[in-house]
Amino acid sequence: MFSSHNKSGSKSDLIFAADLGGTHLRAAVVGRDGKIHYRLKQPTPQAEKPDGIVHALVDAAHEGARHTAARDGQISAVSIAVPGTVNFEDGVVVKAPNVPCLDGFRLAAALESELKWPATLENDANAAAAGEMWQGAGRGYSNIVCVTLGTGVGGGIILDGKLWRGVDGSAAEIGHLGVDPFGGVPCACGSRGCLEVYASATAIVRMTREARPRYPDSILHTSEDLTSETVYHAGLEGDELALEVFRRMGVYLGIGLASLINLLNPEIIVIGGGLSNGWELFEHHMHQQVIERAFPLPARSVKITRAECGDDAGFLGAARLAFAGQQAPTN
Amino acid sequence: MFSSHNKSGSKSDLIFAADLGGTHLRAAVVGRDGKIHYRLKQPTPQAEKPDGIVHALVDAAHEGARHTAARDGQISAVSIAVPGTVNFEDGVVVKAPNVPCLDGFRLAAALESELKWPATLENDANAAAAGEMWQGAGRGYSNIVCVTLGTGVGGGIILDGKLWRGVDGSAAEIGHLGVDPFGGVPCACGSRGCLEVYASATAIVRMTREARPRYPDSILHTSEDLTSETVYHAGLEGDELALEVFRRMGVYLGIGLASLINLLNPEIIVIGGGLSNGWELFEHHMHQQVIERAFPLPARSVKITRAECGDDAGFLGAARLAFAGQQAPTN
């Protein structure tokens, strides 16, 4: 055991880092230079107790170590991106709606006990922001807002090169900026009109279903399995329904970004997550709202760009945070 | 002249600090312990050239020095809170809509040249936040959002004890969070539905005029000179129109604060400015929106409270920033 979970990372040049999603566990053995020496992806165990998650992470870590030990050296720390609120200092999962068995669980301590490596936990969207700053679109910047458009909408805020986690570790919930507070679409968070109900993959599907009756000629009527990808591909083919849905999504995203820009005046906004693949369908509408709504000075200076690390952002950022924590274990 | 405007402040124990408003210039000679040794208030000169402002500030500084020199010691720095965007590093007013003659003006250098003291400039709402942290409701906190409800709505964000100014000095424009982006009320900033068009003194008057036809019995029909104060006093007497206007104002303010809380997860939100005097008329509605809309963890932990420094917040914060800049002039 180690006295402080956030001071993980020995002087080793390898970290076992994982991005624990609600659906998939993505993990890698990452070098100090950002090189990915080994990677794996597997379904997240549908565990009712934290043990199931811990064992999956430990098995993945052992597999990573086995594949890299001979050629690349020893792993000496573990770092996990978790889909929820994390107490970074204590290494505790506070609340993880998609992996509820971890709520309140001391995951860092459990991993340290099993692996004998110091462990770091971080919120997944924060980790993705750190990953993009290290190896992606945020390289060379130190004031970054990262927006992750996935099943939900997450965010990470980096100011002066440091993640801003807030006093409870729950900052940067960009998906829960109110962008249409009186508009009536309820959000899973309990509020209504949050960015997440307009700019997530889930929202794309919902908005497509809602608008379908107004577009009788849309090819999306025949689509059995409606996903944000099928809507995106229909949009590429010029389907009016799909284009309208991505237009709306871009408008709401731009409204949220304008508020963010007026509030934080960041250098760069990095947009990632699976839905960011629809970039060419929403980019114009998003930018237009930013120009119309944000103050001219910060709107002109901010760069708004696509993320570059894809699904690697989370574990890369987790690895970076562990390297940055660099202090020899205190016992 | 000094090599860096933001390193003003010698080891002296007295600062001449001023809060330059669109209407009034408030100034004081402030001690290192926050004691106000001398204060003055005068109309802001309606100058077409920066000289008029510079001379008013210089005269006020000389007056302050004359009144304090014998008993309290020497003033050795000047610090000004400006109603607009400021380049803190260079001591330049970037844009000040209510004192437009200062746009682009190197005010710090001009004051240094006249007074032979190092000079600091800061945005007025940022200065007010620093003042509340030093001598007001923010004492003992280091993660503070300060919202100033005046003619407009301003803001200051303090993270880890430091003002977050953004990369262009234009951060913390809390009045320009979109709280009803589709609601249609245009804002002077060019956007629509900003917090400022619902939660400023100007907005109280506008909303009262708009709603008056629906409240034929309101005492505000006979009010010649409709101001946010007359609406407030009518509300205290139970006037239904006034109560409805402050209810709306509280709802919009609460919506904005909920977004702020989800984004920044601060320790404390301090609400100041003249309109904050209406606290008992809007507090309940504001809190209700925060509870309904913000994430439970940060909403429970944040303290939302009234400012304590009143009109002194701006110059107190300006003084504090000059003391904090404490380095001997480099030439």
- Terminal CA distance of chain A: 7 Å
Largest sheet of chain A: 5 strands, mixed
> Under the CATH scheme, which class of the largest domain in chain A?
Alpha Beta
Multimeric status of the protein: homodimer
Question: What's this model, at a glance?
Answer:
Chain A is α/β, with parallel strands linked by helices. Chain A has 2 domains: 126 residues, 2-Layer Sandwich (Nucleotidyltransferase, domain 5), CATH 3.30.420.40; 170 residues, 2-Layer Sandwich (Nucleotidyltransferase, domain 5), CATH 3.30.420.40. Chain A contains 10 helices and 12 strands.
Structural account:
Two copies of one chain form a homodimer. With 331 residues, chain A is an alpha/beta fold. Chain A has two domains: 5-130, ATPase, nucleotide binding domain (Nucleotidyltransferase, domain 5); 139-308, ATPase, nucleotide binding domain (Nucleotidyltransferase, domain 5, 2-Layer Sandwich). In chain A, 38% of the residues lie in helices and 19% in strands. Chain A has helices at 50-72, 107-115, 124-135, 196-199, 201-211, 228-236, 240-264, 279-293, 296-301, 313-325, and strands at residues 14-20, 24-31, 36-43, 78-82, 85-87, 92-95, 119-123, 144-149, 153-159, 162-163, 268-272, 303-306. Chain A has a five-stranded mixed β-sheet, with helices on both faces. In chain A, strands 10-9-8-11-12 form a five-stranded mixed β-sheet. Chain A has a two-stranded antiparallel ribbon with strand order 5-6. In chain A, a hairpin with a 3-residue loop joins strand 1 and strand 2. In chain A, helix 1 (50-72) packs across helix 2 (107-115) and helix 7 (240-264) crosses helix 8 (279-293). The longest helix of chain A is centred in the last third of the chain and has 25 residues, at 240-264. Chain A is globular. The N and C termini of chain A lie close together (7 Å). Mean pLDDT of chain A is 93; it is low at 1-11 and 327-331. At the A-B interface, strand 9, helix 7 and helix 9 of A face strand 9, helix 7 and helix 9 of B.
